[in-house]
Amino acid sequence: MSIPAPYARILSAAAHRAEITTEDPGVIRLGENAVLRARPGVVARITRPGQHAAAAREVAVSRWLTEQGIAAVRPIDLDQPSLVEDHAVTWWEELPPHGPGTVADVAHLIRALHALSPSEHLPLGRLDPFVRLDQRIEQATSLPADDRDWLRRHLDDLRASWKALPEGLPECVVHGDAWVGNIARTEDGAARLIDLERCSIGRPEWDLVSTAIKHTSFGWVSAEDYRHFVEVYGHDVTTWSGFATMRDIRELRMCLYFAQHAPTDPNMHTEARLRLDCLRGRSGPRPWPWTPAT
């Protein structure tokens, strides 16, 4: 897949500033961030506009995790990120051939992450489970106005519920988006954390809920695999009285991911409609027949 022209231009300018020679560059993944192979062994990650601080934090977190002995994707050793047309560009060591991790990998890695003592020199902010959700509702223009109004009210309700969460596990360093898709498992069985831009200080239950709801809300994770996840991590978040609030926030995020892309993608529009109908109680009780994002 050829690199879209805007990203090709940004990559070229950033490579020049970083004194990195590109060689037959190509696309690895296009999403909220563009992940591009600049040359064999070197990967460029281009953020959406206005994310320079988040990109700098991601690089700092990765370096810190490596120092702490946590397996994670590694940045190239140079001064970064670069800023090109308000897009932050960071540079990373390319991973060997890999696929998504397992739920056991998630449990092992986030247990190790949660056990770390945060460094006072690391620019970690507070966990924000609602980041960009207002914008995603506004971008969901293929949904009826009534549905978008409901989503705004639902988001307001969840913000209030988040502030009233009961006590739980002690706050710690969290990944912020811990699921099998953000674990890279290489052919030798090694697993690494990737996509560290949401790493922050917050409630560890947030990192547990993603796997829990893939069992309780959608049936994507089997009962046996979920029991193993709980055994490895050492805590079952579904037994906590705040679980329903975090579950509902996660489900809303998963719905709005599709809804924001629905205006330009008929398949994503169909899935967004299904997800919204489930959230609004129009499609019966959980588990719901959502299709996993790829």
From TrEMBL:
Pfam families: APH. GO terms for molecular function: transferase activity. Gene3D superfamilies: 3.90.1200.10. Residues 42-238 form the Aminoglycoside phosphotransferase domain. The keyword Transferase applies. Keywords: Transferase. InterPro entries: AGP_Transferase (IPR051678), Aminoglycoside_PTrfase (IPR002575), Kinase-like_dom_sf (IPR011009). Coiled coil: none annotated. This is Aminoglycoside phosphotransferase.
